[in-house]
């Protein structure tokens, strides 16, 4: 029987797969009934439920993402709850269409049970990504209903 990954190991694997662009492997790190809350998401769903929905979402990101993400300054904080970690890191972002590079801050609060993520609250700097893409005016117009 394979050894169950710790929350720290699961998060590290998640970050490694994102950095390598292996989005198709991400859903396998989540439980069948996992819940992901993307707290600061400005336009998309802020809550995704289930591995199947996450797999679909990761496929959409892989197909449409104009960025390369390199993690830096990673700090993983363990809590008194053995299932729960808080991870803080920056992405060094390269936006391929514009050639811009910049840093984007991130925090995730992950609950990992039996080697898979069962719940995640994600705090990513979506505004930095939108600003770098040059689509901030379109986002503002969409939010205003124009």
Tags for this model:
146 residues; alpha+beta; six-stranded mixed beta sheet; globular
Description:
This protein has 146 residues and is of the alpha+beta class. The chain is 30% helix and 40% strand. The termini are far apart.
What is the number of E strands? Answer: 6
Q: What order do the strands of the largest sheet run in, or round the barrel if closed?
A: 2-1-6-5-4-3
Order of helices and strands: HEEHEEEEHH
Beta-strand residue fraction = 35-45%
Distance between the termini: 56 Å
Q: Any idea what the radius of gyration is?
A: 16 Å
Unreliable sequence segments: none
Shape from CA axes? globular
Largest sheet: 6 strands, mixed
Brief synopsis:
The chain contains 4 helices and 6 strands, in the order H-E-E-H-E-E-E-E-H-H. With 146 residues, it is α+β, with helices and mostly antiparallel strands.
């Amino acid at each position: 029987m394979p050894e169950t990954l710790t929350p720290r190991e699961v998060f590290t694997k998640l970050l490694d797969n994102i950095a390598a662009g292996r989005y198709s492997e991400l859903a396998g790190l989540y439980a069948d009934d996992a819940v992901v809350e993307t707290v600061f998401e400005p336009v998309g769903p802020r809550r995704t439920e289930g591995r199947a929905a996450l797999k679909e979402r990761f496929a959409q990101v892989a197909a449409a993402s104009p960025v390369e993400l390199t993690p830096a300054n990673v700090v993983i904080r363990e809590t008194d709850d053995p299932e729960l970690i808080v991870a803080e890191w920056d992405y060094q972002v390269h936006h391929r269409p514009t050639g811009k590079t910049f840093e984007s801050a991130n925090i995730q609060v992950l609950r990992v049970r039996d080697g898979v993520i069962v719940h995640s609250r994600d705090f990513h700097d979506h505004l930095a990504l939108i600003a770098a893409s040059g689509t901030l005016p379109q986002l503002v117009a969409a939010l205003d209903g124009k």
